[in-house]
Amino acid sequence: MTRPVILGLTGSIGMGKSTVAQMFSEAGVPVFDADAEVHKLQGPGGPLLPVIEAAFPGTTGPQGVDRPMLGNLVFGDPAALARLEAIVHPAVAKVRDLFMLEHAGKPLVVFDVPLLFEKGGWEKVDAVVVVSAPFEVQRARVLARPGMTPEKFAHVLGLQVPDSEKRARADFVIDTGTPLPVTRDAVHKVIESVRTRSI
After folding, report:
1. Which tens digits make up the pLDDT trace of 126-153?
2. SS3 breakdown of the chain: % helix, strand, coil, rounded to 5?
């Protein structure tokens, strides 16, 4: 049985990946949002709360995981981060497998994964779409976010594969430094390209 072509969608902070993911969804392409699934798994009543609480006492409550508190515990501690990832990643993989079963008859699906290159997810997709924009546009978008500072922005960039490298490794690059209709047209061109060629 053939399975859908899997497009990996990624991009650095502030590049407009969520907007592009929404455009794929509006075009009828099922999108698996890895971050959204993590939020569900760790949110109020989420199935991972007991395991996370056991591994990191005091980091969960009625509202789910206290993300800032948990972030502070694993930030700069590779062993703690590895413990957390060993809890979260298999759970996300299970949800992703269910997503693939649900959409088995579709020609194309998208995996929206922020750290696709950083965590090796690019090996599990058929082609990679990188969402990109000029640095000045990216910086302005990110610094407009509540609580964001130039220092935090620089730190996040330091944890991510540089945009230039992502673009070099991509099968498709979608520029979001353009008006929305132009970006939407680029999304449709990617869909058409994937459907009319074997990757």
Report:
1. 999 999 999 999 999 999 999 899 998 9
2. 55, 15, 35
